[in-house]
Amino acid sequence: MLFAALLLTGVASAQDSRAFGLRVGYGLEASYQHCFSSPHFLEVDLGVDFNAGRGFKLSGVYDFVLGQPSITNFGEWSIYLGPGVSMGYVYNRGAADPSFMVAGCLQLGIEWLMWEHLGISVDFRPTYGWDFGGKRAYDASLLTSLIPGLSIRYVF
């Protein structure tokens, strides 16, 4: 009985891995990942947005792991894709003042879990939505959508 309880606890903790770190792209964000059902995960980022000026943005993306290729013998690789939502108080292109925006996003990336507690990922996250202050579409533009985000996270 004790062995079964310890085994279930170990399996539950392995599936609920978490990671915290920084994401740098066309802004700087604090990044948190939580694995609900292995290997898929939720990523939440909060930070400064430099799309057309300074602003703050919160993004949440649920990523589905598409594959885990064996690229090297060192570490684990994952390719992921997922939909998400962004909201924030940002400058839209051509706007004089910042305003509230809500947008949808799609994230595609690859992650390398080195050693036991260090993860590095590169992803693309185009974002399109509505700018309520300017009463017009919000988009992160093609140029900023093609700038990859680089994340470094501590996995625990």
Write the CATH fold name: Porin
Mean pLDDT: 84
- The proportion of strand residues reads over 45%
Please give the domain count. 1
User: Given the C-alpha coordinates, what overall shape results?
Assistant: elongated
**Number of E strands:** 10
Summarize this structure as a short list of keywords or feature phrases.
single chain; 156 residues; mainly beta; Porin; 2 helices; 10 strands; elongated; disordered N terminus
Describe the secondary structure blueprint for this structure.
Elements lengths: L1 H14 L2 E7 L2 E11 L2 E10 L5 E13 L8 E15 L8 E16 L3 E7 L2 E5 L4 E4 L1 H5 L3 E7 L1
Question: How is this structure best described in words?
Answer:
With 156 residues, this protein is mostly beta strands. It has one domain (17-155): Porin (Beta Barrel). Helix content is 12%, strand content 61%. It has helices at 2-15, 141-145; strands at residues 18-24, 27-37, 40-49, 55-67, 76-90, 99-114, 118-124, 127-131, 136-139, 149-155. It has an 8-stranded antiparallel beta barrel. 29% of the residues are buried.
Gist?
This protein is mostly beta strands and 156 residues long.
